[in-house]
Design brief:
Elements: H1 11-20, H2 27-38, E1 43-46, H3 53-64, E2 74-77, H4 81-94, E3 103-106, H5 112-120, E4 125-128, H6 130-138, E5 149-152, H7 155-160, H8 164-172, E6 179-184, H9 189-198, E7 203-206, E8 217-223, H10 229-238, E9 245-248, H11 252-264, E10 269-272, H12 278-289, E11 295-298, H13 300-303, E12 313-316, H14 323-330, E13 340-346, H15 351-361, E14 366-368, H16 373-390, H17 395-408, H18 414-433, H19 443-447, E15 469-474, H20 484-495, E16 502-507, E17 512-517, H21 521-529, E18 532-533, E19 536-537, E20 540-542, E21 557-560
Parallel strand pairs: 1-6, 1-7, 2-4, 2-5, 3-4, 5-6, 8-13, 8-14, 9-11, 9-12, 10-11, 12-13
Antiparallel strand pairs: 15-17, 15-20, 16-17, 16-21, 18-19
Bound molecules: adenosine monophosphate.
Adenosine monophosphate binds near residues 54 and 335.
């Protein structure tokens, strides 16, 4: 493998690469940089984000720029404001030792006057989103008639977002004699048509395989029952205590719902979707980039241009409709040489989507078991012990207090002390997962053919016992105005499941005993946990008799005597 020096990069740029800690070129850089420096050609490069493609086109562009001339010599077009800022920022860093070289990002949603003023000073490299650049062209505020190189970054995204018309208008302003370089993660029909239309005999490079997912991404899928997506998601997140992830949803509503539930359940999560204002978007992204936010729940469109390097997981709460979107989603992990995991939650009837994506990626998914409550707890415990082992002790502050602390703990032996500390941190998990059912879809249900268009009446069996009911105890009752219909409605709405079978409901003066299907225990606990009924905060627990103790006294009126009824969805 060649070094940066051997690729022909000049000293000023080498100095900045060194300051960034770039030691060796990435594969896309090794292939693209010498080609661009030595030959005046058009290029179509299929490269995922995270492969170092910004430096691959940015370095030769900078090196070929005449910084003594004030004319705009290069134009980079990006699909989103975020990518535009990112690319311009990277290029500014690569060129920081070159006097007089100006790089300007031009994007919508910020002051056009400021951008006009900056353009007047003379900008050699413009990085722009098509909409705003086109606007400036129409106002006669930007001159791209001397451009020698145009780069389409993430061309597939740009076309998918419907920028074709703007691109035509922009390219009409550039000279016929120029180089055009196109970078794309996927070779879509639209990308092919752009290369045919605007490029002459381009060199084609595929870095990694055609349409392949990032090389160091593992693809896992979990088979779930329709009502279990959220609890399964929680298990997966809980099972990897260090996770830093994006959860992809299909709609704004789903994004909001998942984010709200996670927040309610105590996770450090937030939502990113199209309804947010630009300022709110920026704030969420900033929090996520700086890792003050651990989980970002997003739609595909909203996550465009979000560039984060060390995601541990990309989670497909719902699979996208097309395989190319999956490639984009999963390419957000496993970047800059790191490994990553792309996870999909799928229903039995969605298995065909996995097969389609596998074909597109030319990679196999691994079907995984949803971890049991016990497995999650064990993993959390190991991680807690790891964290505690690595905690740095500030001896200066702690040592003077130590004698007093030791005295207070004197009556506890080592084992008892460890158990107490661990429980202090850990009881929330132990409590939540105590009665957690197996969420895996049985082998039989997985093989069962699915008639599309017809909701299935039978449900997946967990542990093989379809009829098993659990009794729940709620701290609200008749006095709080609780009615059976209301309880059913709450289960239906809050759990989002709609098909939980409910058994007997005893409504007493101050409490309720409610029977419902055991396999939905986590969802039912979840559904009521943060609820208020007529101003009173509800607490719900599995009634003691389920734990082998006696049942709380039922001093109330039995509302539905022994009647079992199916909840309508
Ligand atoms: P990109 O594909 O351009 O978004 O780059 C992904 C990440 O890799 C960015 O954070 C870059 O700073 C980093 N990167 C790019 N080239 C190198 C290199 N040669 N060595 C180390 N990191 C790199």
């Amino acid at each position: 493998m060649k070094t940066f020096v051997e690729l022909g990069i000049n000293d000023d740029i080498l100095k900045s690469l060194l300051s960034l800690g770039f030691e060796d070129p990435t594969p896309v850089q090794s292939q693209v940089i010498p080609l661009m420096l030595e030959q005046q050609v058009d290029l179509v490069a299929l490269a995922q984000t995270g492969t170092g493609k910004t430096a691959a086109f940015g370095i030769p562009l900078i090196q070929l720029t005449d910084s003594r001339s004030r004319k705009t010599q290069s134009l980079i077009l990006c699909p989103t404001r975020e990518l535009c800022m990112q690319v311009a920022g990277d290029l500014a860093v690569f060129s920081k030792f070159i006097k007089g070289l100006n790089v300007l990002p031009i994007y919508g949603g910020s002051s056009i006057d400021q951008q006009i003023r900056a353009l007047r000073k003379g900008v050699q490299i413009i990085v722009a989103t098509p909409g705003r650049l086109n606007d400036l062209i129409k106002r006669g505020r930007v001159d791209i008639s001397a451009v020698q190189c145009v780069v389409f970054d993430e061309a597939d995204e740009m076309l998918q977002m419907g920028f074709q018309e703007e691109l035509n208008a922009i390219l009409a302003q550039t000279p016929a004699e120029k180089n055009t370089w196109l970078f794309s993660a996927t070779m879509s029909k639209e990308v092919k048509s752009i290369s045919r239309r605007y490029m002459s005999d381009p060199v084609e490079l595929t870095i990694g395989r055609m349409n392949a997912g990032a090389e160091n991404v593992r693809h896992d899928y979990y088979m779930v029952h329709i009502g279990n997506r959220y609890p399964a998601l929680k298990r997966i997140v809980d099972n990897s205590p260090d996770n830093y992830s994006i959860i992809f949803c299909r709609t704004r509503r789903e994004t909001n719902e998942v984010a709200s539930k996670l927040i309610q359940d105590g996770y450090n999560a937030d939502a990113l979707h199209g309804e947010l204002t630009q300022a709110q978007r920026d704030q969420v992204m900033k929090k996520f980039r700086s890792k003050n936010l651990q989980i970002l729940v997003a739609t595909d469109v909203a996550a465009r241009g979000l560039d984060v390097n060390d995601l541990t997981h990309v989670i497909n709460f719902n699979l996208p409709d097309d395989a190319a979107s999956y490639t984009h989603r999963s390419g957000r992990t496993g970047r800059a040489g790191r490994t990553g995991i792309s996870v999909a939650l799928v229903l039995a009837k969605e298995r065909y989507k996995i097969r389609q994506i596998e074909k597109n990626l030319k990679k196999k998914f691994k079907q995984c078991r949803i971890p049991t409550g016990q497995e999650v707890c064990k993993n959390q415990l190991v991680s807690l012990v790891d964290v505690v082992t690595k905690v740095e002790v500030d001896h200066e502050q702690i040592d003077p207090l130590y004698t007093e602390i030791a005295e207070k703990f004197a009556h506890l032996d080592r084992e008892e002390l460890i158990k107490k500390f661990v429980s202090r941190e850990f009881n929330r998990f132990l409590e939540y997962y105590k009665y957690a059912p197996d969420l895996n879809v049985s082998e039989k249900a997985q093989r069962r053919p699915v008639k599309t268009g017809q909701p299935r009446r039978e449900s997946y069996s967990s542990g093989g016992d379809k009829q098993q009911f659990t009794r729940f105890f709620l701290n609200v009752g008749r006095r709080d105005g609780v009615m059976p219909q209301g309880l059913l409605g709450k289960i239906n709405d809050a759990s989002g499941i709609g098909r939980i079978k409910v058994g007997k409901i005893d409504i007493m003066r101050n409490s309720v005993l409610l029977e419902a299907e055991s396999r939905f225990t986590p969802q039912i606990l979840d559904a009521f946990q943060h609820m208020t009924i007529n101003g009173k905060t509800v607490s719900i627990e599995v009634a003691r008799e389920n734990r082998g103790a006696s049942r709380p006294k039922a001093g109330g009126k039995r509302v539905s005597k022994g009647r079992r009824f199916n909840k309508a969805a």
